[in-house]
Design brief:
With 155 residues, the chain is mostly helical. The protein has seven helices and no strands.
Length: 155
């Protein structure tokens, strides 16, 4: 087993969660584009929402950064970037909610851009889902053959 195996396994585990989440959330957001402006208005109307959502989003992003500091391979890079983007989103929600709401309203107001972004993130989600759930070929050396016995050395 190589030293990068735990990191690759961690990438797969994050991909298993992030992939389906992005697919479901982005398809739903694209399908409900007409409702997004109303949802953002309701979100902006009560500042409590940014205090409720912000810490959870920020914590999720920080967990991703802390547990996935692996940048080798396309899937690992995508997972790491998503961790930083989620952290940034949580920070904006918590510290600068009006700036976050303004940016979100601007993007939602441009329906074609909104749908394009949803399509891109759906593609990323499909890729991560594939990486996370595809069967892996067992190319590792069997444990008994690769392990060195824990025996005292002879002189």
């Amino acid at each position: 087993m190589s030293s990068s195996h735990p990191a690759q396994l961690r990438t797969r585990m994050f991909a298993r969660v992030l992939g389906p989440f992005f697919v479901i959330a982005c398809i739903t957001a694209a399908a409900r584009t007409s409702e997004m402006s109303a949802l953002m208005s309701d979100f902006a109307a009560n500042p409590l929402w940014s205090w409720v959502a912000g810490p959870f989003v920020l914590t999720g992003g920080l967990v991703m950064i802390a547990l996935h500091s692996y940048w080798r391979g396309a899937a690992a890079i995508v997972v790491s970037i998503m961790g930083w983007l989620v952290t940034l989103r949580g920070l904006l929600l918590l510290a600068f909610p009006s700036a976050f709401i303004s940016m979100a309203n601007s993007m939602i107001g441009m329906a074609d851009l909104w749908r394009a972004i949803c399509i891109v993130f759906t593609g990323i989600g499909l890729y991560l889902t594939y990486v996370g759930w595809m069967p892996t070929a067992d190319r590792s050396v069997p444990q008994a053959a690769s392990a060195t016995p824990d025996l005292p050395r002879a002189a």
